Amino acid sequence: MSALRGLLDRPLASYYLLLACVGLLLIIGLTMVFSATAVTNYSKGLSPYGSLIQQLAAAAVGLVAFWVCQRLPRRTYRAVARLMLMFAIALLGLLDLINLIASLRNQSTAQWGPVEASGLWLSIGSVVLQPSELAKFALVVWGADVLVRKGDRILQWRELWTPLFPAVGLLFVLVGYADLGTMLVLLAIFVGMLFVAGVRGRVFAGMLGVALLGILLLVFAPGKDYRKDRFTAFLDPTSTNCTDNCFQIKQGWYAIADGSWFGVGLGNGSLKWNWLPEAHNDFIFAVIAEELGVVGCLMVVTLFAVLAYTGLRIARRVPDAFRRIAAAAVTIWFISQALINIGGVIRLLPVTGLVLPFISHGGSALVVSLAAVGMLASFARTEPAAAAALHARPSGKWVQLLWAPLPAIARRHRPPDAATPSAPTPRAPSRAEAGAGKGRRGGRGPAED
Predict the structure, then answer these.
(1) CA 12 to chain centre
(2) Half-sphere exposure of 325 (CA within 13 A, CB side)
(3) Are 272 and 279 in contact (CB under 8 A)?
(4) Fewer CB near the last or first residue (10 Å), C or N of the chain?
């Protein structure tokens, strides 16, 4: 324990822990995507490496996004926060509008000029993206910026109504009808940010009632019968009233049962051969359970636990409120999504169709998640001890240019980010200063960042 405590006490421990756990999750994800898709792709006459190549391409773009976001200072995130939210809302509105028009006209293809909508995805030429993934990152950055600007005024109800609740409510409406799982993640992010910012407890009580009512309405919404089937399958998987959704859950159970403690071996699973629906996506954790067993599942869960610890550690140590709220929100995003996905596979929660972060097949999810990790990594480098260590032994100019610039050193007394700053507390003069400055009023105060 002392050795582990010594490692965790190192200045850049948060930064390297973050890179290590996300890197291992990414490697596991690439391996399992190939294992889950190779045989089925080959049976369809496609290349067995097709899905792996797509995921590798998304990982490459995501690593570029990680590199860019790691280099950006705090002021850049706050400057683009509103634009990010407006862009995400515009894409979500466009997606819903195209799908609605196609539904009213009974069209088989939802298309408007070069833009085509397919379920939760927008295709603009050769670019395919999922706007709800962008909405998660936008909510983190914009929500943290708004809460920090309001400062202590968030204790007043009217401050939450302008503009926080209306904008987030619009986001929930645009996402929730088509994608209940993502809306639950957005709700978790929003509640987590409010909690970290210090909003009163009675606000959460009111939000809980509204959230439960909204979730029930979405579960039983017209045209969304599959949600009722999933809920029925969760309550009674032996029911004869549901077919496809019960089938997916049962096949996931069979995969977990076949894996036992140590699994049947990487690549040797059989239920992924067109027996387990969405084996490469929503139910990839079942493929891990079959091929790597309980040991493999525990390894994945442990990595997410390390990610949770690291994200909250960064949130606790960063020197300003914006970074603290944003770091906590990103951590809640990843962990809540992982819990919902894994809980659906092992029947602790209803199936919602969410992907497992960094592991499931999906380009938009992987790129946006790695971008958020880049922002978290930039925050980890600004921890006071980390920034001091980086300045004490600075890397070369080329390393700073190709990887990340040196972070600013946080001062002991930093004015808050809110609109009404408070005066810094003067430090006590040293014995030498006290002797040299007898007869005058104290020494010079600390410099501000």
Answers:
(1) 22
(2) 28
(3) yes
(4) N
- If one counts every other C-beta atom within 10 angstroms of the C-beta of residue 69, the result is 20
Angle between helices 321-345 and 131-150 (to 10 degrees): 140
Cα–Cα distance measured from residue 311 to residue 324, given in angstroms and rounded to the nearest whole number: 10
Total residue count of the chain as it appears in this document: 449
- pLDDT, position 300: 96
1 contacts: CB under 8 Å, gap ≥ 6? none
**Cα–Cα distance, 95 to 120 (Å, whole number):** 8
| pTM, entire model | 0.87
Write the pLDDT tens digit of every residue in 350-396.
Answer: 888 899 999 999 889 999 999 999 999 999 999 999 999 998 888 88
Q: State the pLDDT at residue 417.
A: 52
End-to-end CA distance of the chain: 37
Q: Can you say how many angstroms the Cα of residue 247 is from the centroid of all Cα atoms in its chain? A: 29
C-alpha–C-alpha distance, residues 15 and 364, integer Å: 24
346 backbone φψ class: left, alpha, beta (φ>0; ψ -120 to 50): alpha
Report the distance separating Cα 131 and Cα 365, nearest Å.
10
Compute how many other C-beta atoms are within 10 angstroms of the C-beta atom of residue 203. Answer: 17
| Rounded distance between C-alpha atoms, residue 60 and residue 33, angstroms | 15
Strand, helix or coil at 444?
A: coil
CA distance 244 to 227: 12
Q: Are 357 and 25 in contact (CB under 8 A)?
A: yes
- pLDDT (0 to 100) of residue 413: 41
Cα 170–Cα 173–Cα 175 angle in degrees, nearest 5: 110
SS3 state of residue 215: helix
Give SS3 for 46. coil
Residues 287, 345: contact at Cβ < 8 Å?
A: no
pLDDT digits (tens, 9 = 90+) for 304-355: 999 999 999 999 999 999 999 999 999 999 999 999 999 989 888 888 889 9
Mean pLDDT score of the chain: 85
CB-based contact 375:69 (threshold 8 Å): yes
DSSP output for 321-368: HHHHHHHHHHHHHHHHHHHHHHHHHTTSS----PPPTTTSS-HHHHHH
> Per DSSP, what are the bridge partners of residue 122?
117, 129
* Cα 306 versus chain centre, distance: 15
Contacts of residue 169, defined as CB under 8 A and 6 or more positions apart, other chains included, come to none
312, exposed or middle or buried, with CB in 10 Å at 0-12, 13-18, 19+? middle
Three-state SS for 287?
helix
327 touches 376 (CB < 8 A): yes
